[in-house]
Amino acid sequence: MKKIYPSLLLCGLLLTSSCLTALSVDDVFAMLEENQQSIETIRLVSQTKMTMSMGGSPPQPAMNQKMSMVFKKPNKVRMTTVVEAMGAPPQETVYAFDGKQAVHKGSDGTVQPVPVDEQVARLPMDSWKIPEELKSKCKIVSRDGDLVTLAVDGFFGEGVRGMENMPFKKTIVQVDMKKGVLTGMDVYDAAGTKMMTTTMTYEAKTSVWIPERIEMTMDMEQGGMSMKMAMEMVFSEVEVNGKIADSEFRLD
User: Fold this and answer.
1) Nearest 5°: phi and psi at 17?
2) How far is residue 183's CA from residue 214's CA, in Å, rounded to a whole number?
3) How confident is the model at residue 248 (pLDDT cuts 50, 70, 90)?
4) Which of 72, 95, 114, 229 has a Cα at 20 to 30 A from 245?
5) Alpha helices of the chain — where are they, by DSSP H?
6) 169 to each of 8, 59, 140, 155, how far by Cα in Å?
7) How far apart, in whole angstroms, are the C-alpha atoms of residue 220 and residue 212?
8) How many domains does the chain have?
9) Angle at 20 between CA 15 and CA 21, to 5 degrees
């Protein structure tokens, strides 16, 4: 059963009114968290395709990735990933965390223990969740029906692996309050130039909204050379809140 936040009662009333000032940032994030808290287990497959262009050259395939993931609250996760990158042969790896020990199986079949990585043991849709310390840097800038737009003084995906050194200084985020999900995100540098755009679409699974497709484009300079990247991630074979045995999270 979904947890009810006192502020959500007010939030529900506000969705039928034009009183923007009464809706707080905490109300917005409570609604986002409420959708995710309904998920006890999830099984899915994601297919990611990425193209890249450097120095104005035509876009070239950079990566194809297929990932099968199983997740069980509070933190059990298993991910099997097959990656084809830059023309190299496919590489399959497995990461598993049973709540106590994390292990990694390389493409050569070798299984090794690894430090527990809490970032990995998150739901896919939770990897863009704003850190608590950034909530104070958020403000609501507009509202159109169920769609609320937030401005964040910083990067909304702060802490996401691979994004640590990106020059992102401001994020504009769109939130669908009725579904309790993010629908779009634009990221800017210190000069106010848009560097990255992300759009997300969802489907309902047992009253929970699950990502169906995520599309991202990036346009920036790196080492004095322009770089453009486009990525599409499509989710399929999604099962929510089904029975998943603990044995699935062990690599024997």
Assistant:
1) -125, 175
2) 9
3) very high
4) 114
5) 6-14, 25-37
6) 30, 27, 17, 6
7) 27
8) 1
9) 135
**In terms of residue numbers, what domain contains 114?**
6-249
Burial class of residue 95, CB neighbours in 10 A (0-12, 13-18, 19+)? buried
Q: Is the pLDDT of residue 82 over 90?
A: yes
3-state secondary structure of 132: helix
In a domain, 107, yes or no: yes
For residue 1, tell me if it sits in a domain: no
Q: DSSP characters for 152-187?
A: ESS-TTTT-TT-TT----EEEEEEETTTTEEEEEEE
Give the torsion through C-alpha atoms of 89, 90, 91, 96, to 10 deg: 180
Bridge-based pairing state of the strands 60-72 and 76-85: antiparallel
The enclosing domain of 156 has a CATH number of: 2.50.20
* SS3 call for 7: helix
DSSP β-bridge partners for residue 122: none
Residue 219 belongs to a domain: yes
In the prediction, which pLDDT does 157 show?
57
What is the pLDDT averaged over residues 81-103? 87
